[in-house]
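Changelog-linked ticket: calcium ion example.
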Amino acid sequence: MTRILIVEDEAGLRQGLDINLRLENYETLQASDGEEAIRAFHASTPDLVLLDLMLPKKSGFEVLDHIRRVSKTPVILLTARGQETDKVRGLRGGADDYVTKPFGLQELFARIDAVIRRSENSAATSKSVCEDQLIRLDPGTREAHANQQKLKLSPKEFDLLMYLFRNRERVVPRDELLSRVWNYRVDLNLNSRTVDTHVTRLRRKLQKAVGTDAAVIVAVAKIGYRYLGQSISN
Ligand code: CA
């Protein structure tokens, strides 16, 4: 069942949304201010967040920023009429869509459906095999090969290599790896050393399969790592 977190400080609107979403067979959770929203987000891991922007304690922008630092969970903003700059700022900040108050329920349901479908599609493509001349990663079977040799990777090493491969056009910052590969939450005692340790182990395994001089993953000082996927031995 799709779980929706409703973040709205106007009690009437929040409860109205809650009742109507339940009638549409969604599971719902409510938060009435920004801090409660962040707590509820971590406690319940919703599939989608309806997020009002003007909230007590922490603004919707702060909540959105927090959510985007730790997850890709779809967010639909509940914005006030005429606040064009807020919509733009929200979309730039990683929101998936918005509805303008007062909105009709049918419009809201349609937007929820569309946003959820989009996020399911991107989850489906994340199951596709990653392959180049050097490595082959199959997210379905969790098998990894380099130079046609099977690699024995830990689950995190596999996820790390897959994430670097999928983002190989750029250097991936350590913080991003922590949030995307480790699903880093503020309450976990992880730091960038965790990333370094895993990358070191992963590189050792790759180098063994590819050849000692191979630079499959390069470190970029003070930033992070990048998958190169080619040997520089010649
Ligand atoms: Ca409000």
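Closing comment: Example verified and attached. Residues 130-233 form a domain with the Arc Repressor Mutant, subunit A fold (CATH 1.10.10.10). The CA atoms of residues 71 and 180 lie 7 Å apart.
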